[in-house]
């Protein structure tokens, strides 16, 4: 009975949030079309709505730890769930995401991502994707703010492992900005590939900054070790009892 209730509330949660996304997307469309600020305000409003419905419908609360980056910097974040995107978007002032190109064709999300200055890249074309990222950033198409990249290139379920890719270092090196690594356990509660949501406290933890100027091996090794170690600790803290991959040197 409890599981049936959880499924029912999870499906309701998904439907309600899809409708709210459509509603806000249409209401803010004229402002967003005229100004990126309109897109930013609409998306911030949506994250607050999701925060409320997470608590009210499915029992998910969330917490942000560490120093939230407010300066112009590179945020390199663990990606387990759409939820960690929402949490980061809500708390950083001017987020710009490196995102897969296919999302540009997603109704509402694609339009607003474009207006926010997110950087689309083609999957499976590492060299081309990196060049495109740098061209967009250097051309000024990406406005100043917090550029967010997922170093594994996709969502990774708790307990799974994907190597860290070199694109994070290329941006860090070329932008000559500090890097704010971020860990999470959000995938335990809002899982990839299912509408079922699980109650609990989702955490995004911003870790100590990596100052500009580190060499590739040092940067990639530190990045992977710190993000994976912190994410594993957050998952254990939340009660995850499954196997976790050993934290080792970057394979990017």
TrEMBL record:
The keyword ATP-binding does not apply. Keywords: Acyltransferase, Membrane, Transferase, Transmembrane, Transmembrane helix. Residues 73-187 form the Phospholipid/glycerol acyltransferase domain. GO terms for molecular function: 1-acylglycerol-3-phosphate O-acyltransferase activity. It comes from the Bacteria. Pfam families: Acyltransferase. The chain crosses the membrane at residues 12-34. One of its GO terms (biological process) is phosphatidic acid biosynthetic process. Pathway: Lipid metabolism. This is 1-acyl-sn-glycerol-3-phosphate acyltransferase.
């Amino acid at each position: 009975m409890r599981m049936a209730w959880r499924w029912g509330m999870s499906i309701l949660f998904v439907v309600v949030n899809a409708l709210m996304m459509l509603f806000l997307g249409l209401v803010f469309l004229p402002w967003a079309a005229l100004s990126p600020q309109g897109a930013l305000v609409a998306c911030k409003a949506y994250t607050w709505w999701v925060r409320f419905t997470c608590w009210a419908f499915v029992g998910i609360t969330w917490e942000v730890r560490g120093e939230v980056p407010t300066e112009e910097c590179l945020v390199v974040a663990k990606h387990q769930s759409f939820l960690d995107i929402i949490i980061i978007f809500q708390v950083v002032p001017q987020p710009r995401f490196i995102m897969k190109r296919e999302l540009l064709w997603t109704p509402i999300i694609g339009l607003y991502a474009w207006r926010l200055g997110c950087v689309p890249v083609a999957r499976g074309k590492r060299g081309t994707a990196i060049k495109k990222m740098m061209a967009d950033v250097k051309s000024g198409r990406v406005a100043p703010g917090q550029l967010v990249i997922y170093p594994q290139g996709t969502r990774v379920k708790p307990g799974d492992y994907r190597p860290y890719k070199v694109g994070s270092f290329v941006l860090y090196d070329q932008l000559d900005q500090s890097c704010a690594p971020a860990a999470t356990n959000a995938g335990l509660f809002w899982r990839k590939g299912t509408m079922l949501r699980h109650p609990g406290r989702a955490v995004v933890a911003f870790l100590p900054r990596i100052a500009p100027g580190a060499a590739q091996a040092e940067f990639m090794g530190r990045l992977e070790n710190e993000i994976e170690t912190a994410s594993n600790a957050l998952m254990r803290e939340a009660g995850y009892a499954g196997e976790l991959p050993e934290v080792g040197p970057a394979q990017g």
